[in-house]
Amino acid sequence: MNNLDLSVSSFLKDGFNLKKHLINFLQINNDQLDKRLLNGVDDLAALHPGAFTKSDAGDFYEEKVGDAHLIDLASWHLNSSNYIADTLRLQQKFAYGNVLDFGGGIGTHALAASFLPAVEHVWFVDLNPQNRSFVEQRANQLGIKDQISVHRDLESISNVIFDSVICLDVLEHLPDPSKQLEIFLEKLSPKGIALLNWYFYKGENEEYPFHFDDPNMIEKFFYTLQFKYIEIFHPFLITTRAYRPLKK
Questions:
Q1: Measured in Å, how far apart are the chain's first and last C-alpha atoms?
Q2: pLDDT the model gives residue 72
Q3: Where does the signal peptide begin and end (predicted)?
């Protein structure tokens, strides 16, 4: 596609044609989509079982949420586009080589990364089969299907070493986020970069029931982060941080 534009300004315009992609994928009309986007957060919350155990989390995102997670993420990216845009600017500053978008959701960062001249290839990983199918369709419609590989888990691409890891709004959904940091460490190249954020908080009134907030888990996470990674300064006033591995 000769006139393809996956720049930050293009994202701010329409989320990389997000609504049209959703209409095509879900086979609904614009009014139906707007209604679902309006109720996206409530519809997803209604599916929550009330409390997660460590063994429940993966099954919930892979088997139970269906396309509700897709809608919730789309609503958030459209309504919080200025914040998302800054994370894209951060990615633009650091991402290069082989890029892993871990828990990539609706594919915003994977699509944008594929457009960066320093990026060779993007691996998109997400447990949710609806998310994976949607991102595959988006990449195909945008004419960049050869630049993005879509996978369920890291085990299926165990031989790939990444120069950049993008993991945004994912770690708080994992029962053992410190273990994930260790896995990223093994998968990063010696001069690799990891862009990470987290929010280990359920909210004053359980607004975020999907998040893990165990104090011991959080302490272990920060211990691992501080002893295995070094933070790299960036000028953006956002929660996402940039890290390089210390072990390499």
A1: 39
A2: 87
A3: none
Residue 111 C-alpha from the chain's centroid: 11
Q: Which of 17-21, 64-68, 69-73, 236-240 has the lowest mean pLDDT?
A: 64-68
Is the pLDDT assigned to residue 95 strictly greater than 90?
yes
Q: What is the rounded average pLDDT of the residues 67-76? A: 88
In a domain, 44, yes or no: yes
Q: Note the pTM of the prediction, 2 decimals.
A: 0.92
| Tokens, residue 36 | 């679902």
User: Would you say 111 and 144 are in contact if contact means Cβ atoms under 8 Å apart?
Assistant: yes
At 216, which CATH number?
A: 3.40.50.150
Kindly state whether residue 2 falls inside one of the protein's structural domains. Answer: no
Virtual torsion, Cα 45, 170, 105, 66, nearest 10 deg: -40
For the ranges 5-14, 57-66, 182-191, the lowest mean pLDDT is seen at: 57-66
